[in-house]
Amino acid sequence: MTSFLLVVLAVQTPAADTLRQLALRLPDAALVAETRARPAAAREAVTLALDRRDLTVAGKLSAAYAVAWSDSFLVREVARFAAWPPERQAGKVWVDSMRRHGVTVYGRDGATAAIAVWRHALTRALAIRDTAAIASVLGNIGAGFSTAGQPDSATTYLERARTLATAIGDVRVAANATGMLAQVQADRGDLAAAHDGRRGVSSRRRWRSIGAKGATTSRRRTS
Question: Does the domain formed by 110-216 have CATH 1.25.40.10?
Answer without folding.
Answer: yes
